[in-house]
Each structure stands twice: as C-alpha cells, then as structure tokens.
Write a structure and sequence with these properties.
By secondary structure, this protein is α/β, with parallel strands linked by helices. Helix content is 41%, strand content 15%.
C-alpha cells in the first residue's frame, strides 16, 4: 500500500472550493441541516452550526431537542432552529424523526450526531434519513457513528456521499477492533472504514488520516495539542458540513475542512497558547483562511 499523500496547501490547489461570485446570494452557498445537541449537550449544536456559517454556508437549519431549541435560537440568531420531540432520557423521540427527514430533503448537506444521545432512537433517525430520499452528502460524527454497523448496507448504497469523522476510539467501535490497533495504523483503519462503508473516512488525532472509497489516502500533521479539547470535533463537523452545503464534493470538503480546522488550531496556538484555547474560538479563525477571502 502506498504512503498517504501529504495534505497541505499545495495539494489543496488540486481541490478548489466552489467559486463565490460577488453577486451571489445565500441560496447559492447552500443550506445545511445540522441535527445535533441534547439537553446535556446543547453546546455541540451551537459549535457545529456557527462553524458551518464561518465556512461559508448560506443558510443554517438546526434540528435539536425541543427543550433547548429556544435557547439555541437565541444563541445563534442566524439559524432556523427546529425543535424535535425527545424521550425522558434525552434521546430523539420517534415522532420527532419524520419532520427532520422532510427538512433534510430540502438541504444541500446534512450533518448528524454531535452532542446527541446514543441508542436505538438515533439509529432509527439515521435509518429514516437513509431511506428518506434526501439528495445530498451526509456528514456523520460522534454518537451516530455507533449506528453504522447495523446500517452498513444502507450507508454503502447512499449515492450522494457519506463522510465519517471518528477519533480513534470511535473508529475502534466502528470496525470492531481495539483502540490500540487503530492508533498503531490509523491510515489502514481509515482505508478499511472507507471500503466497508463506501465513505470518505477520517481518523482524527495528533496526525489525521483521510481515506476515500477508492483507497486514496492523505495525512495531515495536526494543528497542535490544543485542538484536543471539548467541542473541537463538533467544530470540524460543522466546517465540513458547511463546505458540502456550498457545493464542495465530499472529498474536497473533508480535505479542506480538516486542513482549516488544523490551521485554526495553529493560529490560536500562536495567539493564545499551546493549550487552553476554546473550541468556540476556532470558528472565528476560519474566514481568514478561506481562499475566497485571501488575496491571490
């Protein structure tokens, strides 16, 4: 197996993001539906949503637990927040699934999982999305990743691109392996996940590895130890989802999203410190890193 390609600014020239004309409107930059958050983890939805807007998504919709919907709408006034029914233990209720599937059909990308409660209800949500006829990329992270093994066939058949964003522990559960095996060869773990689920797969870590379904693999030296902080992964999911909503194909969105996230970490390391910066500070670094906002 060939060595992973280095993910850097030079490689990204071969993966240009969609051009943004000066006379374009918000509809031209796409609509992202973020399904995220729960009573105990409302911040995950906020982090993902703001990151998507900072990555340039034109419109943001957030499907989240009814108990936190009003507060989230105030926290992100730019978003349309759709409260769904929830169970006593904080999971999405069955009656809350169908409305989210309808919203997904009108979106240009859907990001699912950040801050949600694991279990059968989340698996039912993912199954409904996969069967619901939405025609857009799916960005899957956090608790929803544990639902994939039982829905492998449906995920593999999804025609519009699936992106998986696990860290080593989540990847170990996804593949039914020990975490130590994943950490020993994260590139091969990413390749295996890409093959098994016909998806673009990332293994997050000090160095991150990305694999495409065809086997092409990339390595990115991390953005610093400060990125290992609560909410950092939620930000990454939002960036990738926002780029997909803008019209980037799944591989382009994943490569750029991973690179932007790392570069934001490097910028904060220089300005704030090696550790101690917050995940909520990462999205504000993104606009200055986007090629549309830099001089040629």
């Amino acid at each position: 197996m060939s060595e992973p390609e280095s993910l850097d600014a030079e490689l990204l020239r071969a993966f240009p993001l969609p051009y943004v004309p000066e006379d374009s409107g918000k509809e031209d930059r796409g609509r992202l539906l973020v399904i995220a958050g729960s009573r105990e983890l409302a911040g995950a939805a906020r982090l993902s949503g703001v990151a998507a807007l900072r990555a340039g998504a034109g419109k943001l919709q957030i499907g989240t637990a009814q108990s936190i919907a009003a507060a989230l709408a105030v926290a992100i006034p730019e978003a349309r927040v759709i409260g769904h029914a929830e169970t006593d233990d904080g999971c999405i209720a069955e009656e809350g699934i169908a409305p989210l599937v309808r919203w997904a059909k009108a979106a240009q990308a859907v990001a699912v999982g950040c801050g949600m409660q694991p279990g059968r209800p989340l698996e039912q949500l993912l199954a409904a999305l996969l069967d619901g006829g939405a025609g857009c990329p799916l960005v899957l992270d956090a608790a929803v990743l544990d639902c994939l093994p039982s829905l492998c066939a449906q995920v593999c058949r999804w025609p519009n691109g699936v992106i998986l964003l696990p860290h080593a522990g989540e990847m170990a559960r996804l593949l039914g392996r020990d975490r130590g095996e994943i950490e020993a060869d994260p590139a091969e773990a990413a390749r295996e996940a890409a093959r098994r689920f016909n998806a673009h797969a990332l293994v997050k870590g000090g160095a991150s590895f990305i694999a495409a379904p065809g086997g092409r693999t990339f390595r990115l030296e991390g953005g610093g130890v400060g990125l290992a902080t609560s909410g950092s992964g939620d930000v990454l999911a939002g960036i990738v989802g926002g780029l997909c909503a803008r019209g980037a194909d799944p591989l382009t969105a994943l490569l750029w999203g991973t690179w932007l996230h790392a570069q934001a970490g490097r910028r904060l390391t220089k300005r704030v410190g090696r550790i101690g910066f917050l995940a909520r500070e990462l999205p504000d670094e993104i606009p200055a890193l986007l090629p549309a906002n830099r001089e040629a």
